Amino acid sequence: MKLQSLTSTNLIRTDQAFSTKEEAIRYLVDQLDQEGLLHSADDFYDAVMEREALSATGMEGGLAIPHGKSTSVKQAAFAAATLKTPIEDWESVDENNQVELVMLLAIPEDEAGSTHLNLLAELMTRITDPSYKEKLMAAKTSEAFYEALDQEETEDVAETTSDKLLLAVTACPAGIAHTYMAAEALVRAGKELNAEVKVEKQGSNGIEDRHSKKDIRRADAVIFAADVAVKDQERFAGLPRVTTSVAAPLKNAKGIIEDAIKKSRDPSLREETDDSHEEEEPEGKSFKAEIKDSIMTGISYIIPVIVAGGMTLAFAVLVSQAFGLQEVYDQEGSWLWLFRQLGGEMLGTLMIPILSAYMAYSIGDKPALGPGFAAGIAANLIESGFLGGMLGGFLAGYIIKFLKKHVQTSGTFSGFVSFWLYPVAGTLSVGAIMLFVIGEPLAFLNNGLINWLEGLSGGNAILLGAVIGTMVSFDLGGPVNKAAYTFCIGAMASGNIMPYAAFASVKMVSAFAVTGATIIARNLYTKPEQEVGKQTWLLGLAGITEGAIPFMINDPLRVIPSLIAGSAVTGGIVAYFGIGLNVPGAGIFSLALLEGQPLLLGASVWLGSALIGAFISMILLILSRKHKLKKQSTNLTTEEDKQWKSA
């Protein structure tokens, strides 16, 4: 395969001088842009730096391979540079790596399985050959480097015959560099240790070199070198396994192969099972990493539900208020009522169980799905919101993990244990805990909050407005938010219409703030976060706070205070001006229903206070996000680094 078709002498530079990783990447991005390969250099640079935040792209032996997938890339290509002076602080698999060769890969977002991506995979495979890499690093001119790309040498490694067959699966978040380099490293180490190693790559091309059933039956062990969930793990049920990060083989492939061979000789680690038997628990993942992966898995599954449900509900609300169809909106069985129910059920019924179920799945695999859904349904029943759902997801996952560790069997009975005992025992256990242990304290908390709010009414209007604002954005639809809603509805029934006006205005703050932050400081947020942020303002117009939930779940200690600060200001302003709303509803079209001030003044204050609060929250979101990223960049040992060190 011709690697030269992916680059040119204009994209290769030798003996360059860069003082930082960012400077080197920016330079190579500009080279790609000057060759007309990018729609936007800034967008692609952001994509590369986003990938840098996932894991180290520095390898070993002076090599670094930054890369990114982006819609700003016109066609797959790579740019390269050799350095006069090594960059010593490039985050690398080998802590002592001093980068002297940088190869920047550019991949279009939708180019999976294409010839170009196959060529990039070929580059990753070749670059693990020390002699090939040294030839590239030794090139003194761009032309010499270009010519060396396709001067392949025949490997001087004798064919081996071994009765040991080791299977491996490699996968990294981007599915490009580490996936293929780890695969090649394992194969080479296997040859040196007289073991046959077959590797399945789960990358941007999908599943490549998929292991056959025949190979799985005769394999002695399996190696999972992955930083993302391995697809179809159940195929390897019963095989002894080694689980590690995708970067570990680049540093210690021999050690991993030796560990797999050692485990293959232990009869207790190999079970005669049917195809339904669940695999052993993955090794090597810390509690902190497991919690983080669980949360991120849950978030990834609820984002489509939040967006689809929120927009459907927003459509019903906006149509009813814009065209005066409130009666149709409230009429059971009408077309607008059905849309309202559809969106409301997705947000109110489905969202929390899906979050809980897939958090549990991340921890305990498929047997945890049933208990996870049960935990989410229980969270809805006790009105504990997404925080209760998260707690339920953790409980379900770790209950199943405990059962899988302590209640094991083999043979035909294993199917019964995996698909009956685990889910049923897990569901009953987590259901009992959620319904009878957590439920009553949460109900007590809700009632206490409502009574406290009632004590703040009257002369403490500004304080009441600030408290309502705080409660609305504290948990975005959870029990605290619902307590505020219940109080506002009760106050409205008693003739006090100010609390609900504050409530309705504050409900726009979190959505507007998230949209503003992801647009103004887009470089601080991931692509999925940017996409969600673009849509939350529409949810905010309809008074729907749930669009900000993914941001809150991902970083609650920073996001919650940021949203609360702006929301408290909004609630206080509305209360100060004595603006009221005597119709239950939310959203921008409540403007026409406001009371307590002349319509124009009241509408201006009511909407303006929401924008002021959103601006305050947006600034705090941006500042706290910058602080978080700065803290991460200066942390010498991330969780992934620890895993590499222990590998």
UniProtKB/TrEMBL annotation:
<feature type="transmembrane region" description="Helical">
    <location>
        <begin position="458"/>
        <end position="476"/>
    </location>
</feature>
<dbReference type="InterPro" id="IPR004715">
    <property type="entry name" value="PTS_IIA_fruc"/>
</dbReference>
<keyword id="KW-0813">Transport</keyword>
<feature type="transmembrane region" description="Helical">
    <location>
        <begin position="559"/>
        <end position="579"/>
    </location>
</feature>
<dbReference type="GO" id="GO:0009401">
    <property type="term" value="P:phosphoenolpyruvate-dependent sugar phosphotransferase system"/>
</dbReference>
<dbReference type="GO" id="GO:0022877">
    <property type="term" value="F:protein-N(PI)-phosphohistidine-fructose phosphotransferase system transporter activity"/>
</dbReference>
<feature type="region of interest" description="Disordered">
    <location>
        <begin position="264"/>
        <end position="287"/>
    </location>
</feature>
<dbReference type="Pfam" id="PF02302">
    <property type="entry name" value="PTS_IIB"/>
</dbReference>
<feature type="domain" description="PTS EIIB type-2">
    <location>
        <begin position="166"/>
        <end position="262"/>
    </location>
</feature>
<dbReference type="InterPro" id="IPR003353">
    <property type="entry name" value="PTS_IIB_fruc"/>
</dbReference>
<dbReference type="GO" id="GO:0005886">
    <property type="term" value="C:plasma membrane"/>
</dbReference>
<dbReference type="GO" id="GO:0005351">
    <property type="term" value="F:carbohydrate:proton symporter activity"/>
</dbReference>
<feature type="transmembrane region" description="Helical">
    <location>
        <begin position="599"/>
        <end position="623"/>
    </location>
</feature>
<dbReference type="InterPro" id="IPR006327">
    <property type="entry name" value="PTS_IIC_fruc"/>
</dbReference>
<keyword id="KW-0762">Sugar transport</keyword>
<feature type="domain" description="PTS EIIC type-2">
    <location>
        <begin position="291"/>
        <end position="634"/>
    </location>
</feature>
<dbReference type="InterPro" id="IPR013011">
    <property type="entry name" value="PTS_EIIB_2"/>
</dbReference>
<dbReference type="InterPro" id="IPR002178">
    <property type="entry name" value="PTS_EIIA_type-2_dom"/>
</dbReference>
<dbReference type="InterPro" id="IPR050864">
    <property type="entry name" value="Bacterial_PTS_Sugar_Transport"/>
</dbReference>
<keyword id="KW-0812">Transmembrane</keyword>
<dbReference type="InterPro" id="IPR036095">
    <property type="entry name" value="PTS_EIIB-like_sf"/>
</dbReference>
<keyword id="KW-1133">Transmembrane helix</keyword>
<feature type="transmembrane region" description="Helical">
    <location>
        <begin position="373"/>
        <end position="400"/>
    </location>
</feature>
<feature type="domain" description="PTS EIIA type-2">
    <location>
        <begin position="5"/>
        <end position="152"/>
    </location>
</feature>
<dbReference type="InterPro" id="IPR016152">
    <property type="entry name" value="PTrfase/Anion_transptr"/>
</dbReference>
<keyword id="KW-0597">Phosphoprotein</keyword>
<protein>
    <submittedName>
        <fullName>PTS 2-O-a-mannosyl-D-glycerate transporter subunit IIABC</fullName>
    </submittedName>
</protein>
<feature type="transmembrane region" description="Helical">
    <location>
        <begin position="337"/>
        <end position="361"/>
    </location>
</feature>
<keyword id="KW-0598">Phosphotransferase system</keyword>
<dbReference type="InterPro" id="IPR013014">
    <property type="entry name" value="PTS_EIIC_2"/>
</dbReference>
<feature type="transmembrane region" description="Helical">
    <location>
        <begin position="508"/>
        <end position="525"/>
    </location>
</feature>
<feature type="compositionally biased region" description="Acidic residues">
    <location>
        <begin position="272"/>
        <end position="282"/>
    </location>
</feature>
<keyword id="KW-1003">Cell membrane</keyword>
<feature type="transmembrane region" description="Helical">
    <location>
        <begin position="301"/>
        <end position="325"/>
    </location>
</feature>
<keyword id="KW-0808">Transferase</keyword>
<dbReference type="GO" id="GO:0090563">
    <property type="term" value="F:protein-phosphocysteine-sugar phosphotransferase activity"/>
</dbReference>
<keyword id="KW-0472">Membrane</keyword>
<feature type="transmembrane region" description="Helical">
    <location>
        <begin position="412"/>
        <end position="438"/>
    </location>
</feature>
<dbReference type="InterPro" id="IPR003501">
    <property type="entry name" value="PTS_EIIB_2/3"/>
</dbReference>
<dbReference type="Pfam" id="PF00359">
    <property type="entry name" value="PTS_EIIA_2"/>
</dbReference>
